[in-house]
Amino acid sequence: MPQGFLQIFLFFAVMVALVPVLGGYMARVFSGEAVLLTRVVGPLERLVYRLLRVDPAKDDQGWKAYAGSLILFSAAGWLLLYLILRTQTIHPWNPGDFHSGTWDLSFSTASSFVTNTNWQYYGGETTLSSFSQMSGLAVQNFLSAAVGIAVAVALIRGLVARKTGGGLGSFWVDITRATLYVLLPIAFLGALVLVSQGVLQTLGAGNDLFAVGPVGSQEAIKLLGTNGGGFFNVNSAMPFENPTGFTDMFELGLILLIPMSLPYTFGKMVGNRRQGWAIFAAMATMLIVSVTVVYVAEQHGTPAQHMAGVSTRAFDGSTGGNMEGSEQRFGIAGTSLFTAVTTATSTGAVNSALESLSGIGGLVPMANLSASETIFGGVGTGLYSMLMFALLAVFIGGLMVGRTPELLGKKIEAREIKLVVLATLVTPLAALVSTALAVGTKYGEPSVYAEGPQGFSESIYAYLSQANNNGSAFAGYTGYYQPEAGNLGAHGITFADLLGGITMLGARFLPILFVLAIAGSLARKRVAPAGLGTMRTDTPTFVFLLIGVVVLIGALTFFPALLLGPVVQGLTTRLF
């Protein structure tokens, strides 16, 4: 246990040290300042603007125009990816002669990658050609991540005192800079590191034992962009994707690098670094609690192990604890850290089987998803989601002290609060309604694999994951063959594909529209000078208030569902 906690502490220490470096860099990039890469990337950036007919010095879109550009861009990306998946039989670099699959699977996959979810109802190495992996999935890994960053930057601009009549900047400029200055260079360096450590990177053909392909390049951006969809079906538990203990920590670092740095970017762009650190502190506190709980739970083992007389103590050659479905080379600490980080962000990559976690250990990823991407969350998504809860917190705090709620001098009034409530309710509503349809209707019944609390856990987790654009799963939830009832499993798969695709699209883009509407409303407001009655939002008191609001809303929304699933399973001695 002490060695595991030391490993976790050192990892977070390194990540915190990188926050001001990347956070300050991104603040300069999105403020239009020259950076080290400007001489290299600048010509390509200007070429993109000429092709798009964009003038970064003059274009300043209102929230409706910004949202319209975002939806148009994402819709075009969805259609292109769907066409790539449906025409796979004519692709080059298809040594496995993979077919194009079914229309419903293509719908689910296109929706998944365009929304930064990367939920996969297929095994990548046995389904997709290298061309599909590179031109379809990897491209969307970049672009969907850039969309999230752009929305966060637009919201930051709405909170800054501006003299542009409510403009949020240009979506086309923001997504270009996010891709060229942030995602591409870091992903390129990350891919070089991974390939140097043994991660595959080839266009050659595999053999009957295993598939090969351009794994390293996709692995870097899948993690950096908090996408999560793996080249291989077992994701980052596969040695060809994650070969060593060093690559395991490095991949975790890629996942957290941008989400941890964006609060600093926020603080620097609004001219209040303490405010950025306050948001960071709230996120970091919840993540540390998550890691600690899952680590202690997995080290303790399961009730079934204890009833069977299995020792869960650590000894030479073994970490002890619950190692079912986990990699011995990563141990309990590495597995627990990966589990908490990948579900606190919207990544969804895994280095172990989540369904093999103990009941309480399995509660942690569900609880993280129930926080609606506020614990760092996805790139961009985490920041704007937490800022929605910050607006709720200042509103509640203002009611408590009898003052008009303000954030950074912008008064929060009825219009903003209504939009905030809508933005924060869409994700949990999508998850709960979809789960109810899956477990409570005859159409969804074939898609539920296991029985009892495990089956319910798989179902609620699936739609929590998809609604939160996460992509991880408790496994089992894909539909299955029932010989006594005919092949109802095929209907279960189609049901899950369609409902999951709709859930991912709705839970991704509806909150974005509400967030941009809030940004547009705030951008038109004047900044009120701070007075004696102004509630400070950059203090430890506000951090605790913010955490309380997140936990309270998540608990009120999902506590009954969590009780029916992992909590019940954690209290039973039966091995599901």
Kindly describe this structure.
The protein is built from 17 helices and 2 strands. It has 576 residues and is mainly alpha-helical. It has a domain at 2-272. α3 packs antiparallel against α5. The model is unreliable at 479-491 (pLDDT under 50).
Summarize the structure.
The chain is mainly alpha-helical and 576 residues long. 63% of the residues lie in helices and 1% in strands.
What is the number of beta strands? 2
State the major sheet.
2 strands, antiparallel
Rg from C-alpha positions? 23 Å
Order of helices and strands: HHHHHHHHHHHHHEEHHHH
Strand ordering within the main sheet: 1-2
Shape: globular
Head-to-tail CA distance between termini? 27 Å
Can you count the helices? 17
Detail the topology: elements first, then pairings.
Blueprint: H1 2-30, H2 38-52, H3 63-86, H4 103-114, H5 130-159, H6 171-196, H7 215-224, H8 245-269, H9 273-300, H10 303-307, H11 331-344, H12 359-370, H13 381-401, E1 406-407, E2 410-411, H14 414-440, H15 452-467, H16 488-523, H17 540-570
Keywords:
576 residues; mainly alpha; two-stranded antiparallel sheet; 2 strands; 63% helix
